[in-house]
Design goal:
Two copies of one chain form a homodimer. Helix content of chain A is about 25%, strand content about 30%. Chain A contains five helices and ten strands. The structure holds a DNA duplex (27 and 27 nucleotides). Chains A, B: InterPro entries: Nudix_hydrolase, NUDIX_hydrolase-like_dom_sf, NUDIX_hydrolase_CS, NUDIX_hydrolase_dom, WH-like_DNA-bd_sf, WH_DNA-bd_sf, WHD_NrtR.
Chain lengths: ~230, ~230
DNA sequence: ATAATAGTGTCTATAAGACACTATGAC
DNA sequence: GTCATAGTGTCTTATAGACACTATTAT
């Protein structure tokens, strides 16, 4: 008769950002013995006394320099297939998290990872990632797409102030389709609590654009369907 | 310095059904030493070689008699707070699942549970459940509510064939609000792939009602908002 | 006939999408 | 002035919700 399972728990993070109009994911090159050298999602094992969320924040900071304060983590799913990590004799269960981050100056390599980089999602999905991280990445991207429909999460990809064009570029990049600028403008400025007018404008090549900051709303009702 | 955590993994299931127009949840009275005698969600520890989903199906069958074939499980979330189970010295992480079930003849008590019962959700939320199961139940009910908006999951609460009144009763019970019968009828019969006309009718006190079965669609687009 | 439940018609208000148009800057 | 980008107006079509109305059964 089989015995009660004893397992190690990992938190792995799908950290997404926007760079040059394309969705990117944070990847690290593995230093640990298991699957060493392969690209993987940032993450690692829970330590005594830590929750899965604690570990996700810690590993994200250690491996990519993304500090806890500026990053909201949402739980994606837990991956527990018995054969998902055959490198260890101990079973490994992974709790996956989704983080949406504003573009950073550079993906700082931390202490634990030999290398950390922002990789275009399209490219990452064609790479051989460690363990089942490709599936986790797929699930994370799909969740991000869905979140843009019914929450105000898109602003998490942008700096504190941004224009409606910036915001529209987020939707275009995550959904992979362009949106009508006029209708987008009306819809989002009318969504209660999504945007706050800063009173400032940003000048550029054309007419100056109003600068907004994220409002208090987190849900988007009615949703903004693809 | 803290050490890498070794944990036991549990799968706990929020199994919901409809009885007499009210949403009910399957609860079991605990037999194990930890929190013995308290009501809890059905569930238990992963055994060697099992995935969390395997364990959820096995425990659900053992403790409530709900067999795997008829029940779709959707992962809810993983609960990993260090203090969520202080009865064991080993850390316990729980993967929670949501199951929507058609009403059954009776909640059969299985071998592992001294007692198993369908309890009205309103009542269960006011009980002192074991561990953090009240929070898990809250999260499960909220997920079920959301699922009815953008999927065809409501039919999972019904037998193979059902009338539009039956289906409307599901929405009314889960959302806690009545819906206009006329608009409900139009909306759902026009939703592509939600309903298939069986050609049969069910007679009762008034005009006979068309019997439908669940169609192939799983997503509901556009969603049906509360 | 009456009550009860199933189902249709229709009107109104709201929203989405297409796209013409105006506004305001850089050059 | 032109070009580029921001933002508004307006028309069409689709949908939600309210609710009057018709349909078909049991009694």
């Amino acid at each position: 008769m089989p015995n009660r399972l004893t397992a190690w728990i990992a938190s792995d993070i799908v950290a997404l950002t926007l760079r040059e109009g394309a969705l990117h994911v944070a990847l690290v090159r593995r230093q640990a013995a298991a699957e060493r050298g392969k690209w993987a999602l940032p993450g690692g094992f829970l330590l005594d006394g830590e929750s899965a969320e604690d570990a996700a924040h810690r590993e994200l900071a250690e491996e990519t320099g993304l500090e806890a304060a500026g990053v909201r983590l949402e739980q994606l799913a837990t991956y527990s297939a018995p054969d998902r990590d055959t490198a260890h004799t101990t079973r490994v269960i992974s709790v996956a998290w989704l983080a949406l981050a504003a573009d950073l100056p550079d993906a700082a390599a931390g202490t634990d990872a030999a290398d950390a980089a922002w990789v275009p999602v399209e490219k990452a999905l064609r790479m051989r990632l460690a363990f089942d991280h490709r599936q986790i990445l797929r699930d994370g991207v799909e969740r991000a797409r869905a979140k843009l429909e019914y929450t105000t999460a898109a602003t998490a990809f942008l700096p504190e102030t941004f224009t409606l064009s910036d915001l529209r570029a987020v939707y275009a990049a995550v959904w992979g389709e362009d949106l009508d600028a006029a209708n987008f403008h009306r819809k989002l400025t009318r969504a209660d609590g999504f945007l706050e007018d800063t009173g400032e404008v940003r000048t550029g090549r054309g007419r100056p654009a109003t600068l907004y900051r994220a409002g208090p709303a987190t849900e988007l009702n009615p949703p903004f369907m693809r």
